[in-house]
Amino acid sequence: DAKTTQPPSMDCAEGRAANLPCNHSTISGNEYVYWYRQIHSQGPQYIIHGLKNNETNEMASLIITEDRKSSTLILPHATLRDTAVYYCIVRVWGGSNYKLTFGKGTLLTVNP
Amino acid sequence: DGGITQSPKYLFRKEGQNVTLSCEQNLNHDAMYWYRQDPGQGLRLIYYSQIVNDFQKGDIAEGYSVSREKKESFPLTVTSAQKNPTAFYLCASSIHWAGNTEAFFGQGTRLTVV
Question: From the candidates A55, A57, A92, A102, which should be mutated to test the interface with B, based on the most B CB atoms within 10 A?
Fold first, then answer.
């Protein structure tokens, strides 16, 4: 699976959009981009995933660049409860082993 | 409610003792996983199971053992051979072992060995 690079930390004001970047310059054509988040002392929570088209669900939007080398997770109206570590993961669809390789992620702090 | 349950949330053990962490899921998922997380670090895979009665070593399996006798259960034993067992342990499951499916995580067990 391709490696990802994320900033270690970001701040966002409550009510504003939080834009979390992720670089995955070695991504292959059959690899998906997944986002999870982990609130302190809890298990990670799935947010969204995509291949090449932009995706949106009730939690967030995922914007993937045309060359697929980077992506941005957007929380449109951040709340204090969105403070968490956000993990960007790239994994192969239909691979022989299912392993989520979590790096250190981005600590998003939403400030009042 | 469907979900994945880990127990207990906090666990204390003396050095040299084996300890078993529980993980149960009622999601009818085939695949289950155990991860370890140390402070400020990402998750590292200990063991995973693609189907009942089958399991495979992950990246840091030494000092750990698992069993998968039932689809819904995947207990992890931390043995005395594990050099640094104090950590946050996370169990996860997914519908299949491969394919475009997301993983669901439990709330974790924080193990402290004194």
Answer: A102
CA distance A60 to chain B (A): 16
pLDDT value at A20 more than 60? yes
Query: CA-CA distance, B73 to B29, in Å (whole number)?
Result: 10
pLDDT at A95 over 70: no
Q: Is the pLDDT of residue B39 over 60?
A: yes
Instruction: Give the per-residue pLDDT at A98.
Output: 57
CA distances from A89 to A16, A93, B35 (A): 25, 12, 15
User: Which residue from B31, B98, B107 is facing A42, i.e. has the nearest CB?
Assistant: B107
Give the Cβ contact number of residue B83 at 10 Å.
7
Q: Are A55 and A62 in contact (CB under 8 A)?
A: yes
- Would strands A106-111 and A9-13 be described as parallel, antiparallel, or unpaired? parallel
φ/ψ bin of B99: left (φ > 0), alpha (ψ from -120 to 50), beta (otherwise)? left
Mean pLDDT for A13-37 is 93
- The predicted model gives A101-108 an average pLDDT of 87
pLDDT at A91: 78
Q: What distance, in Å, lies between the first and last C-alpha atoms of chain A?
A: 37
Q: Among all chains, which residue has been given the structure tokens 């009665």?
A: B53
Q: Which of A4, A98, A104 to mutate to test the interface with B (most CBs of B within 10 A)?
A: A98
